[in-house]
Automatic annotation (TrEMBL):
The lineage of its organism: Bacteria, Pseudomonadati, Pseudomonadota, Alphaproteobacteria, Candidatus Enterousia. Transfers the gamma-phosphate of ATP to the 4'-position of a tetraacyldisaccharide 1-phosphate intermediate (termed DS-1-P) to form tetraacyldisaccharide 1,4'-bis-phosphate (lipid IVA). ATP binds at residues 53-60. Pfam families: LpxK. It comes from Candidatus Enterousia avicola. Keywords: ATP-binding, Kinase, Lipid A biosynthesis, Lipid biosynthesis, Lipid metabolism, Membrane, Nucleotide-binding, Transferase, Transmembrane, Transmembrane helix. Belongs to the LpxK family. The gene is lpxK. It comes from the Bacteria. Pathway: Glycolipid biosynthesis; lipid IV(A) biosynthesis; lipid IV(A) from (3R)-3-hydroxytetradecanoyl-[acyl-carrier-protein] and UDP-N-acetyl-alpha-D-glucosamine: step 6/6. GO terms for molecular function: ATP binding; lipid-A 4'-kinase activity. This is Tetraacyldisaccharide 4'-kinase. Signal peptide: none annotated. The chain crosses the membrane at residues 12-34.
Length: 304
């Protein structure tokens, strides 16, 4: 599905949905309390990389960077909670493409399996799961996109928040993906360590090439704005499975504008192999503050 347009603005429709947000909040608190009973404690340290925003905030590159730095396995749910091949999710495919050990499916079951299979003490990186108290975390890190902030500040379905902003206090640290030379434009708790990361889009084409972009991600406008010489664009629902007809139409639209087709890495891994030579993806160069890595190392030492 597409990220609802009212998530970023306090529109009349958003206000009309606020009563449903209260129902969502009460139900989610009940589920949270029940799942907390008998929470599983892993022998190996669990580093949870999560968010409190629905939709894409750029969490996957952070997961990849931390897992690569620690040479750690990643556990994650598949798309729609499935571990079936067709639903493993673009995030899992992206991480696997990087050479990481990725375990898709029930996170608790996979963590138990990793504890049994491997006797070393390498941490396990858990993609998402901040809202799941059934697994005890040793370190919880929340990721935010500076350009999105808290959206309109409302809980689902009136806004993008999975939890109230006070939930940030449960986190050990926050990473804000920022634009260069710009400060954060939303309030974070003073007693929570905040680190910054910058992401630069790297086009596989030359600067003179015209680009026709398409994306099926949570906030496609962010991707489109990061590209130069853009002459056309097409947004699809998040996690969209492209059909042959879709790709035929995209190739035709790009050819009419004498442009090169470009998409995100998340979309590219979902494309049929036979079109991957014709359609390229924009890479991401992620840089996290050096003091974050110092903090993480010290935090892991304290957990020993």
């Amino acid at each position: 599905m597409r990220t609802p347009w009212w998530f970023l603005h306090k529109t009349p429709l958003a206000f009309l949905l606020v009563p449903f947000s209260w129902v969502y909040y009460l139900f989610s608190r009940l589920v949270f309390s029940l799942r907390k009973i008998g929470a599983y404690k892993s022998r190996r340290k669990i580093i949870c990389i999560g968010n409190i925003m629905a939709g894409g905030v750029g969490k996957t590159p952070i997961v990849r960077a931390i897992a690569e730095a620690l040479d750690a396995p990643v556990v994650m749910r598949g798309y729609k909670k499935s571990a079936k091949t067709g639903n493993v999710g673009d995030e899992a495919l992206m991480l696997s493409k990087s050479g990481l050990q990725v375990h898709v499916g029930d996170r608790k079951s996979n963590i138990i399996l990793l504890n049994k299979q491997n006797k070393d003490d390498t941490p396990i990186v858990m993609d998402d799961g901040f809202q799941n108290p059934g697994i005890k975390k040793d370190i919880s890190i929340l990721v935010f996109d500076q350009s999105l902030g808290f959206g309109n500040g409302f809980l689902l379905p009136a806004g993008p928040l999975r939890e109230p902003r006070k939930a940030i206090k449960r986190a050990d640290a926050v990473i804000v993906i920022k634009k260069e030379n710009k400060k954060k434009n939303f309030k974070l708790p003073d007693d929570t360590p905040v680190f910054y990361a910058s992401v630069k889009t790297i086009s596989p084409y030359s600067e003179s090439d015209k680009l026709y972009a398409f994306a099926g991600i949570g906030y496609p406008k962010k991707f489109f704005r990061s590209l130069n010489n853009l002459v056309g664009k097409k947004a699809f629902p998040d996690h969209y499975q492209y059909t042959d007809k879709d790709l035929e139409n995209l190739i035709d639209a790009a050819n009419k504008k004498n442009a090169k087709l470009i998409t995100t890495e998340k979309d590219w891994v979902r494309l049929p192999v036979q079109v991957r030579d014709e359609i390229k993806y924009a890479g991401l160069n992620l840089t996290i503050d050096d003091n974050f890595w110092v903090w993480l190392e010290e935090k892991l030492k304290c957990q020993l």
